[in-house]
Structure formats: structure tokens, C-alpha cells
């Protein structure tokens, strides 16, 4: 009886998405945190910095609903080509793992929590970052922090266009804003 009650309070078991790095989340307002103020844009997920090639696992089980392009130099010159994997949890929420070097699952796959789904990519081409680039981008390159998992939690699959581009939101939150802070769900990941 007591065990069952505890389970209900804790909710589904979740896995820390980048096992190679310590469980550490940027605090509210810090670089890489959800809704971080980046001047003309706000951050739509959390950034977990890790070396390129680090394995990424699914935080929880679900269905792969989309493999996409996260960033491309065709859109922004200082972006490298990276991928994203979107996994629907079955409770209406979608986890989107962005800025990956490679996706190791396919659309339609059922995945289990803890299953390898991709590897961390090098999102920024720092050789193409210059004085005209956004300050937060210059700061990432200055800190040698150009590779990361960009992780989003959304009520529906975000699509580039409108106020959303490359993991950021341009403008005020409105009815079309689909994102939630992933931090509370990450805090109890094992
Ligand atoms: Zn990010």
C-alpha cells in the first residue's frame, strides 16, 4: 500500500539523458536554462553541455514521431548541421532531443526509457561566429561550450517558423507557445 502511494507521487521513472555527464541543471536565469533571456530571443529548452559524440538516451519510453534537422548552416551561417529526435510520451507530451550529431532511431520506433537514441553534436561553428553574432553565441564559443544536448518538453511538436527558430522563441509567449520547463522532470531522473 505504502509502495503504491510512493509510486503515484513520484510518477514515471526517468533517465538522465546524457549518462556521460554529471546530473547538473542550469538554474533559472543561468545560461542554458529554460526561458533564458538571450536579448532578442528566449530559450525554449535546457542545454546539457557534453563532448561531441556523447551518447543520448530517451528519458522515458514513447514513440519516435519525428526525426528532423535541428540546425543547418543554410539557415544560420554559424550553425553546423545537427539533428533532432522527437519522442511522444503517450500522455500528450513530446520530448525533443536537439542538436544531435546523429539520430540512432527511426520515425515510428517504440523506444524504452534509457534506450540510446542518438549522440551529441557540435552545434556551433565557432570559426564563423563574429562580432555581429548574438552575445550568448559569442559567450558559448569563448567558453568552449559549442556542443550540447538541447532538450525541449512540449505539449505538441514544435516546428520552425513563426516565433520559433532553432530552439529559441522570438517575442512574447502567446497561445502558440507549446513549451514547458523540462527542469522539474529532469530533477528526479536517475
Ligand atoms: Zn538550447
Can you give a write-up of this model?
With 190 residues, the protein is mainly β. Mean pLDDT is 93; it is low at 5-9. The chain contains 3 helices and 12 strands. It has helices spanning 2-10, 135-142, 183-187; strands spanning 42-43, 46-49, 55-57, 62-71, 82-88, 94-103, 110-111, 116-122, 147-154, 164-165, 168-169, 179-180. The strands form 2 sheets. Strands 2, 3, 4, 5, 6, 7, 8, 9 and 12 form a 9-stranded antiparallel sheet that branches. Strands 1-11-10 form a 3-stranded antiparallel sheet, with no helix packed on it.
Backbone CA Rg: 16 Å
What portion of the residues fall into strands of 2 or more residues?
25-35%
Helix-residue proportion: 10-25%
| Oligomeric state, counting identical vs distinct chains | single chain
User: Strand pairing plus helix content: what structural class?
Assistant: mainly beta
Attribute tags:
about 190 residues; mainly beta; 3-stranded antiparallel beta sheet; 3 helices; about 10% helix; binds zinc ion
Summarize the structure.
The chain contains three helices and twelve strands. Helices cover 12% and strands 31% of the residues.
SSE arrangement:
Blueprint: H1 2-10, E1 42-43, E2 46-49, E3 55-57, E4 62-71, E5 82-88, E6 94-103, E7 110-111, E8 116-122, H2 135-142, E9 147-154, E10 164-165, E11 168-169, E12 179-180, H3 183-187
Antiparallel strand pairs: 1-11, 2-9, 3-8, 4-5, 4-7, 5-6, 6-8, 6-9, 8-9, 9-12, 10-11
The chain binds zinc ion.
Amino acid at each position: 500500500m505504502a509502495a503504491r502511494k510512493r509510486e503515484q507521487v513520484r510518477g514515471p521513472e526517468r533517465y538522465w539523458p546524457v549518462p556521460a555527464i554529471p546530473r547538473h541543471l542550469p538554474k533559472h536565469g543561468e545560461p542554458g536554462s529554460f526561458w533564458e533571456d538571450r536579448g532578442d530571443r528566449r530559450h525554449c529548452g535546457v542545454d546539457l553541455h557534453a563532448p561531441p559524440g556523447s551518447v543520448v538516451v530517451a528519458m522515458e519510453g514513447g514513440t519516435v514521431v519525428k526525426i528532423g534537422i535541428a540546425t543547418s548552416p543554410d539557415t544560420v551561417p554559424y550553425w553546423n548541421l545537427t539533428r533532432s529526435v522527437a519522442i511522444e510520451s503517450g500522455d500528450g507530451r513530446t520530448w525533443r532531443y536537439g542538436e544531435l550529431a546523429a539520430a540512432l532511431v527511426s520515425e515510428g520506433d517504440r523506444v524504452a526509457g534509457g534506450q540510446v537514441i542518438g549522440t551529441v553534436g557540435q552545434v556551433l561553428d565557432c570559426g564563423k561566429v563574429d562580432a555581429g553574432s548574438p552575445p550568448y553565441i559569442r559567450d558559448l564559443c569563448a567558453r568552449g561550450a559549442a556542443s550540447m544536448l538541447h532538450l525541449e518538453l512540449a505539449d505538441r511538436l514544435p516546428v520552425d517558423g513563426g516565433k520559433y527558430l532553432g530552439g529559441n522563441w522570438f517575442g512574447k509567449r502567446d497561445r502558440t507557445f507549446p513549451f514547458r520547463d523540462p527542469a522539474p522532470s529532469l530533477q528526479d531522473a536517475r
